[in-house]
Model the fold of this input.
Amino acid sequence: MILLSEVSKTVVDGRRKISILKDITLSVQSGEFLAIVGPSGSGKSTLMNLLGLLDKPTAGQYQFDGQPVSSLPAGKLATFRNRHIGFVFQSFMLMPRMSVLRNVELPLLYQPMRGKERKRLACEALEQVGMIEKIKQKAIHLSGGERQRVAIARALVNNPRLILADEPTGNLDEELKGEILSIFLALKQQGRTIVMVTHDREAASIADRYLTIRHGELVEETPLTRAHLTPQKAEVVYPSI
Ligand SMILES: Nc1ncnc2c1ncn2[C@@H]1O[C@H](COP(=O)(O)OP(=O)(O)OP(=O)(O)O)[C@@H](O)[C@H]1O
Ligand SMILES: [Mg+2]
Done:
């Protein structure tokens, strides 16, 4: 479904050229759950932004279902992204003053649809993450785990082909992390295609396959087994929202 061929990302900082991603070749099959792990600053979010068509590579090709998407004009790119890709960010990115329902309806506002249908789809997505009881609550009044569940519902509402999650458990404690990972497992069982970036090897262990990224380069590794996991104390950090 996804094919990146020798994709690189270089940025110019003053007179210096910084190479963030180097010759990344990566394919993701439809229905596959891929995790990408790597240290801070290794290029994980940059890679996700490229996969999510939020940014363009400086070299290489990106094909989505055989279609070269990196060369699409900006308007078409936005439509393509909205239709096919759902995002879950580490910092949730919800609208704090809007209700849970409204937040999940947001991606549907870009397509012609009756209000009733929009609400039905948003409720369906909220049902999947166990947040249907809280549709009227403002996002600002939710706990960290609830915010992340709403963010996942928002990523699902368009029924996207691809779900991209950048550190979806990064700001959650151990128990909430387990809840969010079980939602991702359920999505995997539905046959969704998922790419998840994580610092956390335990989170990566629920994926079909994982790749390590170091200094902007991908290294393929063997699947994780539980024996390799080192228990890590989760840092509990709740961002403002
Ligand atoms: N526009 C930019 N200009 C200059 N440097 C950048 C730019 N974007 C990213 N970088 C640098 O590229 C490197 C990779 O950044 P990226 O955000 O992809 O890392 P990451 O693996 O997601 O890290 P983390 O785990 O901390 O989120 C970092 O050193 C970052 O400072
Ligand atoms: Mg990052």
Remarks:
- Residues 224-241 have pLDDT under 50 and may be disordered.
- The longest helix spans residues 174-189.
- The helical segments are 44-51, 74-84, 100-105, 115-128, 144-156, 174-189, 201-204.
- The domain at 30-57+73-223 is CATH 3.40.50.300 (Rossmann fold).
